[in-house]
Structure formats: C-alpha cells, structure tokens
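Q: what does this look like with calcium ion bound?
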Amino acid sequence: MEKKKLWWKDGIIYQIYPRSFQDSNADGIGDLTGIIKSLDYIKDLGVDAIWLSPIYPSPDKDFGYDVADYLTIDPKFGHLQDFDQLIAEAHKRDLHIIMDLVLNHTSDQHRWFVESRKSVDNPYHDWYLWRDPAPNGGPPNNWLSSFGGPGWEYDRYLNKYYFHMFEKHQPDLNWRNPELRAMLMKVFRYWLDKGVDGFRLDVFNAYFKDEQMRDNPRKKGLARRPFEAYDHIYDISQPEMMEVVKEIRAILNEYPDRYVVGETFLEGPVYARTLVGEDKFHAAFDFSFAQSPWNAKAFGKAIQYWDALHGDEAWPNYFLNNHDLPRSATRYTQNEDDSRLKLLATMLLTVRGTPFIYYGEEIGMRDIKVARKNIQDPVGKRYWPFYKGRDGCRSPMQWDANINAGFSTADPWLPVHPNYSVRNVANQQSSPASLLNFYKDLIQVRKKHRSLQAGKMVLIPSDNKHLLVYLRHLEEETSLVVLNFSSDIQHFELPIDEVNEWDMVFNGNDAMTSHMSGTGISLPAYGMAILVSRLAI
Ligand code: GLC
Ligand code: CA
C-alpha cells in the first residue's frame, strides 16, 4: 500500500535569503511583497516549500540572525499583514512556508536583553548568561566566539560578563531559565497558529552550555584559528538538549503536517542523526555532502554514510548551497560553463532524501567578489583577507537583463554579479538547454517516477572511479541513476537480466546527452542518465 505523501518528504525545499530576492519598493532590500510576486516563478520551478531566512526585526549585525523581536516582521521586509498574505498566496499554490528560528541568541537590542542588563534583580536578568569576572578581572572561562575573539563581553555597569557564541551583539540566551524556555515555546505556537508549516532551527545544539561553565580542553595539533584549537565539549551539544528537542516536536505534533529541521553547529553526521526521530526533529543538516571534493567516490561516500545513518526509520536531506557557504557554482566550476552544475543537480534531486535548493542555484549564480570597504558580513570584516565572509553567496537574484538584474530599481544592498546581463531567469527561461530548464525538467521526471522521490537507495559499486551509480526502489518500480564526474566520455554496462527492461527517462537537456548502445550507456563529459524499469511479475 502506498504510504501517505508528505510534502517535506517527497517534496523539495527552496531557501530564500529575503534581503536578496526581490525588492518591491525600491530601497535596495528584498521584501515580502517581492517574494509574493515571485511565487508563480517558484511554483513553476516545481518545488514544494520555501524556507525564509529570518525576517524578524533586526539591527542586522548578522543580517537577521540577530533578532530583536520574535513575534513580528521587520518593517524593511513588510508587515504582519504581508506575511499573512504570503502564507495565503503560498498555500493557494500548494507551497509550504518554513521560518528560520534563531533561539540560541537574540540581538542586544531585544527588549529582554535591554532589561537583562539593567540590574541583577531585573526579572529578565537571568534570561542571558551573565557571570562574574574571574578573580583577575578577566573573562569567566576560556570560551571563545565562533566569529572570532573572546566569547565574553564585559558590562561595566553590572561588573559582569555575558556570553556570546557569535557577534558580541548576539548575546546567548539562558535555556536553563524556565520562564525563558516557556516563552520560546510560545514563539513556536505563535507562528504555527499563523499557519506556518515548519521551522529551520538555527544552531540549535548550542542552546545549552555546561551548567558549571568549565573550560573547554585544548585540542592537540595546529588550528587555523583559536576557536578551532579547543574541543567544544562544554559550550555546545549538552545532554539537556534532547528534552527540548522532544518538547518542540510535541508542540509541532499538535498541528497537522508540520516539519522541523535543525542546523547542527560544529558537529558531524553521527551527532546530527541523534537528534532525528519520531519524537525528535524530522531532519538535521549535515555539511559533508555540500563540502565534498569533486569526485564520484567522495560524493558516494558522503551519501552512503548519511543514508545508512538514517536507515528505514528516518529520512535524510541534502543541500549543496546555503547562505553560509560559497556557492557550488563557484566551488566546482571555474568559468560560465554549467555542465558540472547539471550533474550536481541530478545527484541532489535523485538521492534518497529531501533536497534543498538555495535561491539562484537553479540559474547557476556565482559568488560575487566584494571590495573590502563594501564587505557587509561581520565575519568577513574580521578575517579579511584570509576569509572574506559570506557576502559572496548572498548577492541579488538575477531576474533579467534590466538594471540591477531586475532585483531593484535602487542600488542593491550588495552588488549584483557582473554576469547578470547573460545569466538571468528571463534568458534561461527562453533557452531550452539552460540550467533552469534542466532543473525544471528533472523535477518533473522526479515527480513522475515515485521511486525517485520515495524509494530506498542502493549504491552500486563501480570499477570505474568516475561514475557514481545507484538504484532507487519503490514497490514494483526501480530507477537507476548513473552520473559521470569526469570530463571524458564514460561507459556503463546495464545490470540486465530477464525481468529488467530499462527505459531511459532523462539524459540531459542539451546536445551533450547520454545514450544507450546495446546493453550499455555512453555518458558524455559530466553526463547523466536516469533509467526506470518495471519488474514484470
Ligand atoms: C547560523 C546561520 C548563520 C548565522 C549563525 C548565527 O550558522 O546559518 O548565518 O550567522 O547561525 O546565528
Ligand atoms: Ca524593499
């Protein structure tokens, strides 16, 4: 019997960085009305849900990841009515909306923090992590900020330090305080009641810190920067997390078909998997796939490991891009050629798991280069020129060849990529062989053949190190995916027996397509083939 379809399981999630998507009122910043206007485009792409990076009021020290009020919308993005309209218009198109909740820390402009630093007797004081100075007057322990520098900021008025895992303008919340915890649970309900379909939880495994605030031990060996020289055993991933994970899931379960995905911070796949389950999160992110080197073996290994960790009990997810990483187009290509990106898309959209697409990925947007004086990202400001920050992957969406790529008639908050007059949605829509049309065609193939959405996955070992090959099985349908990671033609012999008759259902959308020759497939440079067989019973 066919299991119930679930939008977050069978579907595809599209991440929007709202500042950079579509500006409707000529202030150079994307907004909700801009997103509403783009819903038909998003629907037409074939995705099922939208994850919005934070849209709450924020002084933008970390562009929305420093929240000053969890219960409303930043006026630069619109108002609550616009948000209600976005939900309604999205739902009308059967698109789901996922919000980004940043609950490890707030902005230092949040009313709670403003109160908290007024006095130790203030009811909000204990909502943040305040500690007395060490006997020498220095910080209470050796914890550092992951954005660089000390993790503790001294407050002269209180003669105390507060802890911040990120910018000093992002004080960490004290999840051990019961009132704070209850308040944050209300935040979930507030947005669920508004009709939001799910949440992406920012660095959720950092919520709790060691109660005694012990020093992190030093790691052996060299580290690129001081933060990486420590074993983070006391400032993240504390056992108390698990109870909160379950509490969050229990709230979501009171509503139909909701979804929560956690962003695991500093931890690998094994840890991420421990937070996923029937009574825990639906999914957690792991960065191994996105950070794999360009070869079939490495991707295969990341996939096999992540898939096996999930087993039959849980559902994996995959992404190549997000707002914190250089774009895959920039990491894996050197020029404007998109053939490697088509191969990546095929892999992303046919492995077992929920695919995430980051805005602009579908047209192959490349990172912009930002001059030092124009850098916006706090991490880039601190580490330039060793690390130039995350502005590169956050440039305005390239809609058409008009001024500012059709993103805005005003100067955008970050520059548009100079390739926009050629690389844009309008151009690619009218070119059948474009990357955009590739994504669209492939998504339709995925929808038509349920094994590609919901089937179990089996990786097929191949003697040819350039090929990544796997099967997807669902009931009587089996599909076979063959991916060529090399710049040469490769051949693959089909596993044919009496019951298998393979039909090629996808082989690319340009002149360089794969084809069957006898019992084998010939794949051009970076070519792909998807075949489907129905077992004759
Ligand atoms: C997460 C976000 C990142 C942000 C950080 C602090 O890693 O993805 O953009 O800077 O948390 O909130
Ligand atoms: Ca705007």
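Residues 128 and 174 are 5 Å apart (CA to CA). Residues 62, 65, 102, 166, 202-203, 263, 323-324 surround alpha-D-glucopyranose (ligand 1) (CB under 6 Å).
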